[in-house]
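Review form for a predicted model. The reviewer records the input and the model, then writes brief findings.
Reviewer: anonymous (R2)
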Amino acid sequence: MAKWGARKYQILLAVSATALVVGGVGGLTSHVVLNRGAWAGGIAITLAFLLYDTLTQLRAFGAKVDVLAVLTMASALWLDQYLAGVIIALMFASGRALEEVAGRRARASLTALLEKAPKTAHRYVEDRLETVPVSEIIVDDRLLISAGDTVPVDGTLASAAAVLDEAALTGESQPVAYAAGAVLRSGAINSGQAFEMRATTTAAHSTYSAIVRLVEQAQASKAPLTRMADRYALWFIPLTLAVAGLAGLIARDPVRGFAVLVVATPCPLLLAAPIAIVAGISRAARRGVLIKSAAMIEALAGVRVVLFDKTGTLTHGSARIVGIESRSGMTPDALLRLAASVEQACQHVSARAIVAEAQRRGLMLALPDDIEEVPGAGVAGRVEGHAVVVGNASFAARSAVPEGWATGVLRQSALQGLSTAFVGVDGAVAGAILLADTIRPDAPRALRGLRQAGVQRIVMVSGDRVEVAETIAAALDIDKVLAERSPVDKVAAVRAERGPYQTAMVGDGINDAPALAAADVGIAMGARGAAASAEAADVVLMQDRIDRLAEALTIAQRSDHIARQSVVMGMALSLGAMAVAAAGYLPPVWGALLQEGIDVAVIVNALRALMPALGRRTAPGLPPATIQQWGEEHDRLRPLLDRIDTVTHRLGDRASASAIRDELIVIASLIEEQLLPHERQDEKQLYPQLADLMQGTDPTAAMSCTHREIYHLARLYTAFVNSLTAAPLTEFEVFELRRLLFSLSAVMRLHFAQEDEMFQALSNE
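Model under review:
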């Protein structure tokens, strides 16, 4: 029965098409019974189901476009105008079948995302471990949560410690350490070692289920959207009935009134609008955006307020190294190699980020010995004869009181919303690795695209800490920041932003699902997001790129515009045909054929929604191999920038400023041998390719200007270093060296960020 409900209009389309063909064959062979019976049967079957749907809809006391189709087919049976009636039936079934296909494709594409949700748990039964469905867990069950598993129900921690990734629940981008007896919430992911817990609730009463109930309540409270066709029907239906009635009364011929109904049957509303909308859905799908229904593409076109979650939406959602502070003459790469060698034995999220960065830089890691991991503090071991410790400041120094340098690093990290992994070597703090959930390179471009598409207000609402949220918002075009918000608070924020325009919410975590359901348009990051958010959302970004949202909004607006254009054009032609029919110059069958001609015109216009707008770039973007090549070049040079930053900070310490003369000379050599050749290669090889893909007379002029500033700073720095004498550095020399190095590092990091963003903008991958 469910299968019939999902495909009923496709079946009706097949029935009406078969009836038209069979009846036509009967007419050609002079088989009157076959001719009239087939056409009448096709009309009657379609009319029966249409009448049921229309009566169901009219319980809301709203005028529906289907009313005219019902009246026309009923009149066709009454007046024996079977050919005209079966053509109308075919036309109606075609439009509804198109909407059916679009909705079913969206639901099918979503199934794969929902299958990612955990369905089983590991439970102890008399010291024997068994795998059971989550629904079978009861209070006081002893559960084992392996590394990478999701906590299935709420409970208390039975092991000594646990480290959980709660980004999906709270938006906190960094893992949280818990000690024995702590309360654990379902939906968090174990990012450390396996641990045991005691269930305190069943799955039905867990945190996750509470969020699901919030989703259901939000969906129930959201007002249903009115279809475009039904809005136009509010005035078109009364006008049509009035003209048909007057024509029939004046001519004293019901067939003339029926002829008016035939040409007035809203073919543009039944066909053109659905075709344009479905074409827009198809085009969005090709760009990696799943729009679940035709009504949603209309709603998306009207969005003027967008609320964003932070973690996993505007940011990557995982820890990444953003800086390395080294001491005692150790280079950043040397510090990173020792830390990563020890962290190989750890499953912590930060540990994985440190190891990944070392591997990306091509550092050869050593096998550690005597590994000791203290949950919530850090990990220690021996690497090539050195005692290496990675963790918080006290653990890294093996001392209860951090050094003054460590205190300064912690203060800097707190201000910038960073997390810090201190590295101790042979009993002394040798440096610190700074980690953060960094902004997606496509996020600034996505927000600019939304502004260009007409979005008037952008709000970031996050469960993360205030300082972290404000740090991210400061780098983006955000109108308002709401931090430390629970799922209930997020729903309230969405409702508070509602106004005369449609409001959209964008998120990826379980905690975002209620807000997605409450918004006029809920948009989920489906590539890596939680299944609950994808289920609650109306639009799913299937690729892990936030800039696809701006594209989807543009596609929706264009599809909505073309749909309205086709409807207005078709209705204007229908109104002209109504006048001719009312005057008695257009019999019903010819009126039906004329209406088909109008259909063809509006359908051809509606199909333009499949194509990109005129003037938009359709040529291939940068080849993936080129993007990878230049991205790897940036990765190769970033360690040099870390080294520059380290020397700059050491220059601020008068005690060590004069002891790093050799390092200043090495940096000057690296700038000449690595940095400047890269920039020259950019100018000669990359920028000509970019210019071919970008519009304008000299589209890379601003980037070339940055190159000139880099050359200028590099020349000044090299000349200054070469002018130094063997005497201790003077206060002026320290100041000038720090100024040049700070400037060069800042310009280079900004330049790399601009190029990385440009690469993504010109990529079709």
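Findings: Residues 548-582 form the longest helix (35 residues).
Further findings: Residues 1-5, 105-117 have pLDDT under 50 and may be disordered.
Recommendation: see findings above.
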